[in-house]
Design goal:
This protein has 636 residues and is an all-beta fold. It has one helix and 55 strands.
């Protein structure tokens, strides 16, 4: 059983061996040295630690245990410690530990019991499934020796024992699937000790099983599998016929849950799925019955107006398939969800009244088909004006429902144009400005829904009025005009005669408050007219232009031709434009200052015959005219 034989006999032959070993050495018996040891184990290849005393100071001491030896150095007191030797590979028995001083020749010995190996080995499982990881634990082997695990003549694992000759969960190897349902011999062998332990392991058979998430469902429905009894961590292929539809890995126990998601096929029932272990070839069949489709359609209404928009819901189709919806032969497409349902929020119906039509839906993968009959009714137009009584310039608004979706209404009568109807057969915000007083008739005609529908609107005459905050003032002085009875939001022109001097805007109620200035006009009564630009409403009210009292003089009343006419005045309107005329012909103009005064010499007397001539000074805003006669001197 052991790989090495000792040259040292057991205790019975110890004396003879000792004499043979010591023959070449001179031994001094006067001293009495000794040696001692300590050891964690007593089997071959274990390590013992030696100490000694009584040797010569500083000498080398040869330590021997069988064929194993070492040298220890004695200290100044002739002692040593911590020397190590490996227990030789010898049969069990008592052996001599020998120490010889290399200088003194002194000899010391001790006895040591070398024990036998009692190796043990245990697999991680005595009954184990193929594909499992097999490890080994054991004790009683040589310290640190290499352990070989054999199956027949093949080494399947190699690992070292620890310092005590033990090991735990070492040498992992995979049980071949070919060992299934058999008893297999494994041998655990120590390379140094030569010890061998033979073990028989029972290899289990695989009993695969699998359950789909459903045994009965419509084609296109999702399916997964749960099961067990396959090889540990092996890949499992899900087959449909000869095609692999999905794959997944089993857990370390050969089981799985909710794995291998795929969809049920379209075709004949049942769908024969097989689950096959990629390593073990373990297989199980899971036939799944394919249910029929029972599609249905639910419209938001089975009766609607021509051109109306309805919503349509469908159920009972294949999951995630393309759905083709036909409305009287016109197709549209949508997708079913994961439950085989769909919803179309807006489906346009034809515009033909008093008819029926078929609406159907077909599944692109399932071929599931269903339909229903829809009734298209009459148009029931309802057009409404915002008022039947208003004033010129007011806005009238029409709205309507019950018309043909998307059609165009033609407007005639008091207005000309068109109105677009929306997809719901309605319109709003058709605005028109009412004309002069009388009856304004608006007529609407539908391009599909027919008509015409007429609406006579009474346009009443307006009674506008204006008044002022001041009825006396010179031209250009502040004036606030108040008014009522005009069109909502329209502009109102204020004029004297044919001249418009201000424009203001009425509010939503036709009232106005406008700040302006008193018109420039001759002193006396002045009529101001207010007229609505849109409504034509007109009214007039009188005010009074106050007179001014200006003063005027010339710097000289005798002037030669070519001389300056120095005009000096006051009491005119602020910034009044002044004209200077000689004998009725305007020769010069200037502007009074902000106080209505001036002193201007810009006018040049033209060449005139000697004698009396009239010079006229006129304020064009104040409408004041003063004539002064001067003497024109003879030309120099």
């Amino acid at each position: 059983m052991y790989a090495q034989k000792s040259l040292w006999a057991p205790i019975a032959g110890a004396a003879v061996g000792l004499l043979l070993l010591l023959a070449p050495v001179a031994i001094t018996l006067a001293a009495a040295p000794s040696i001692s040891y300590s050891a964690s184990g007593n089997t071959p290849f274990s390590t013992i630690t030696l100490g000694g005393n009584g040797f010569s100071p500083g000498e080398n001491v040869s330590l021997m245990f069988g064929l194993n030896s070492t040298i220890a150095a004695a200290d100044a007191s002739g002692n040593f410690s911590g020397a190590t030797l490996q227990i030789p590979n010898v049969p069990s028995g008592t052996y001599v530990l020998l120490a010889v001083g290399q200088t003194s020749g002194m000899v010391a010995f001790n006895y040591f019991w070398v024990g036998s190996f009692y190796p043990t080995a245990n697999p991680s499982g005595w009954y184990i499934a193929p594909g499992s990881n097999l490890t080994w634990s054991g004790s009683g082997w040589a310290a640190g020796e290499t352990i070989h695990v054999m199956q027949d003549s093949t080494t399947v694992a190699t690992f070292p024992a620890d310092g005590s000759g033990a090991f735990s969960a070492q040498g992992g190897s995979t049980i071949p699937y070919s060992f299934s349902n058999s008893v297999v011999l494994y041998s655990v062998h120590g390379a140094s000790s030569g010890a061998t332990v033979n073990l028989f392991l029972a290899i289990a058979d695989l009993y695969p099983w699998a359950n789909p998430s459903t045994w009965y469902a419509t084609p296109g429905a999702p399916v997964t599998w749960s099961g067990g009894g396959f090889g540990p961590s092996e890949m499992i292929n899900v087959m449909l016929g000869s095609s692999t539809v999905t794959s997944f890995a089993a857990d370390v126990m050969g089981g799985f849950s909710g794995m291998g998601s795929t969809t049920l096929p379209f075709g004949s029932s049942p769908a024969n799925f097989s689950l096959i272990g990629a390593s073990s070839d373990a297989a199980v069949d899971t036939p799944i019955m394919l249910a029929g489709f029972y599609p249905s359609l639910s419209p938001s209404s089975y009766y609607a107006a021509p051109g109306a928009v309805i919503s349509l819901d469908g159920t009972g189709f294949a999951a995630n398939e393309l759905i083709t919806v036909n409305v009287d032969g016109a197709p549209t497409s949508t997708m079913a969800n994961g439950l085989g349902a769909f919803s179309i929020p807006s489906l346009q119906l034809p515009s033909t009244p008093n008819t029926t039509l078929t609406i159907g839906a077909t599944g692109g993968m399932s071929g599931a088909l269903t339909s229903f009959v829809m009734t298209i009714g009459q148009y029931f137009p309802n057009i409404t004006p915002s008022t039947y009584y208003a004033f010129p310039g007011d806005t009238i608004t029409f709205s309507g429902t019950g018309l043909a979706p998307g059609e165009t209404l033609t407007v005639s009568g008091a207005a000309n144009g068109s109105v677009a109807v929306n997809s719901s057969g309605a319109f709003s915000g058709a605005n028109y400005i009412l004309p002069a007083p009388g009856t304004a008739t608006y007529t609407f005609t539908g391009s599909q829904s027919g008509g015409a529908w007429s609406f006579p609107i009474t346009v009443a005459e307006r009674f506008a009025a204006i008044w002022f905050d001041n009825y006396w003032g010179v031209g250009g002085s502040p004036l606030t005009i108040f008014g009522s009875g005009f069109g909502s939001g329209e502009n109102v022109n204020f004029s004297t005669g044919t001249t418009t001097f201000a424009t203001g805007a009425a509010d939503a109620s036709g009232n106005i408050l406008h700040a302006t200035a008193m018109p420039f006009a001759p002193a006396g009564p002045l009529t101001i007219t207010g007229m609505g630009v849109t409504s034509g409403a007109s009214t007039a009210t009188a005010t009074n232009i106050a007179p001014i009292y200006p003063t005027l003089q010339f710097g000289s009343y005798a002037i030669a031709p070519g001389g300056s006419i120095n005009v000096i005045g006051s009491g005119y309107l602020p910034s009044d434009p002044i004209e200077v005329a000689v004998d009725g012909t305007v020769i010069y103009g200037f502007t009074a200052d902000l106080s209505g005064a001036f002193n201007n010499s810009g006018a040049i007397l033209p060449s005139l015959p000697e004698g009396l001539h009239d010079i006229t000074v006129r304020g064009t805003h104040s409408f004041n005219t003063i004539v002064i006669t001067i003497w024109v001197l003879a030309s120099p």
